[in-house]
Amino acid sequence: xxxxxxxxxxxxxxxxxxxxxxxxxxxxxxxxxxxxxxxxxxxxxxxxxxxxxxxxxxxxxxxxxxxxxxxxxxxxxxxxxxxxxxxxxxxxxxxxxxxxxxxxxxxxxxxxxxxxxxxxxxxxxxxxxxxxxxxxxxxxxxxxxxxxxxxxxxxxxxxxxxxxxxxxxxxxxxxxxxxxxxxxxxxxxxxxxxxxxxxxxxxxxxxxxxxxxxxxxxxxxxxxxxxxxxxxxxxxxxxxxxxxxxxxxxxxxxxxxxxxxxxxxxxxxxxxxxxxxxxxxxxxxxxxxxxxxxxxxxxxxxxx
Amino acid sequence: xxxxxxxxxxxxxxxxxxxxxxxxxxxxxxxxxxxxxxxxxxxxxxxxxxxxxxxxxxxxxxxxxxxxxxxxxxxxxxxxxxxxxxxxxxxxxxxxxxxxxxxxxxxxxxxxxxxxxxxxxxxxxxxxxxxxxxxxxxxxxxxxxxxxxxxxxxxxxxxxxxxxxxxxxxxxxxxxxxxxxxxxxxxxxxxxxxxxxxxxxxxxxxxxxxxxxxxxxxxxxxxxxxxxxxxxxxxxxxxxxxxxxxxxxxxxxxxxxxxxxxxxxxxxxxxxxxxxxxxxxxxxxxxxxxxxxxxxxxxxxxxxxxxxxxxxxxxxxxxxxxxxxxxxxxxxxxxxxxxxxxxxxxxxxxxxxxxxx
Lengths: 304, 357
What we know:
The complex is a heterodimer.
Chain A: E1 2-13, E2 16-27, E3 31-35, H1 42-49, E4 57-62, E5 66-67, H2 71-76, E6 77-80, H3 92-102, H4 108-117, H5 131-144, E7 149-152, H6 161-178, E8 181-186, H7 192-195, E9 198-203, E10 206-212, H8 213-218, E11 220-226, H9 230-234, E12 238-244, E13 248-254, E14 266-269, H10 272-281, H11 294-303
Parallel strand pairs in A: 3-8, 3-9, 6-7, 7-8
Antiparallel strand pairs in A: 1-2, 1-4, 4-5, 9-10, 11-13, 11-14, 12-13
Chain B: H1 11-15, H2 20-65, H3 75-86, H4 89-120, H5 123-126, H6 133-169, H7 177-180, H8 185-205, H9 208-236, E1 240-242, E2 254-255, E3 269-276, H10 285-297, H11 301-304, H12 306-312, E4 316-322, H13 327-355
Antiparallel strand pairs in B: 1-4, 2-3, 3-4
Helix pairs in contact in B: 2-3, 2-4, 2-6, 4-6, 4-8, 4-9, 6-8, 6-13, 8-9, 8-13
């Protein structure tokens, strides 16, 4: 089952296209990081997934074949919006009561226990909580709904490093306990590797890279060697990014297996941050699932 | 064997029953300060009316005990009428206060309902909960509408009760513009209209202060238009005409109270008056004023009486009127128009909310 599946999804706000021809199939049971620069369409994609926006073209389904935003989907998808908007004038206790009454399945005991653990006073007004506490409260309310899919829009943006850690620790603990899927958007690329196991990179409203993070990392290498041979080496691979100094060149390439490198060249693993930034710097580069290349097909046939 | 046909229950309805109780709790939690504030205002109005009625009670009881309802020409009746005419301040103040109720509900309950959610971004929380955005908006609106219906229904009935002595004596009437909109179903209908319009404008504009200001202007404008123009036009529709009334001028718009000197249909609302001359031709205002001057000012009328003087001179005095029995028909029709407008606004609001992205 795919937790989110889009087909030709496009969204236009007046004259601006926020998403173009977006095709995705996000498998269940993953923690998915949705990455991209500001204005890439991350929030629009997440809003479409939770029914807050309607597609201009194409379709989007969640948790199998449920229409995004349908009553069936809303009961099983929990969403924490950017800046965790909650009713600031309500007390934490009232906020819990409001959420309980807006959902048919809500584990109040779990919510109260988590809030006690987080030392969030139930009588305090939501507006009087710190930014970190507000985010934790919003997350606690979402988790108590017992979702099959948790969607988080820039959950870490407003948080200091300690609060970020606490927030994601809460998410990871809940995932470990309940096994639901998570999609979260972020532009904090450096911390993704610790939390996510699946990556979607959006740029200019298009899906630029998508896949299992381990697969993406093993299929990319950083090759370094003499600058004058970089073109020759580059012909053997799909080059994502080239960096040249006076005599030295570094190529970030996609590989499909072991290749012979000329002497003087070295191959290194790439970090996720390096990989994501390389793709974001070059909007024409893409890494999407699609028809297998001839050499990949041979490998695939041989494996059978 | 008897076969009983059972209507199939839609699976969607069975799986997702509308959570009325839960939404009532949410509405209370989210809006309790507004609702409590309004309740205090409503109770204060009701108490003021009860106190006012207590003040007029003794005078009205004496008016009834003196047989003035049947015959106004007893000596003390005029004194009672004068007393009531001199003691309308609180009554008029309450009529004005109740005119403000639809504006207050529209501005402080309707307009912020969705605009505040849109402005603060909390719609991203509420509209993604299991209840769903359309059901959340509709159930909240229905619950608030129930609250204002009950509250304004009570207020309208209490004002009706306060108005009764004034109505019987003929100093004020529920047919007249101010009271027509604040008694019976009309106060409820105006308030529902204010609530629906405020909510619609809030959803459309998405800015609380702007939605509140526009709601106040539009609902207030409609109420003023109704007071000045609409009610009089409405009450002229399908009016009957009679020539049995004693001539009393052209601009009437008053109640033909029982036992009064005007004859004609008792308890009816006199809408307009005019004269026709020879050949049934309608007289102009100037000509009619001239006739009135001659009729009451000339030496002949003292002997023959105005009606006879008119017939001798081939004039007929016409009065259009609405029988007393039609009052509630007019109330229900006018209220139904407002409620239908309110329902259309709610429909448009739900469409806006569904499309808002």
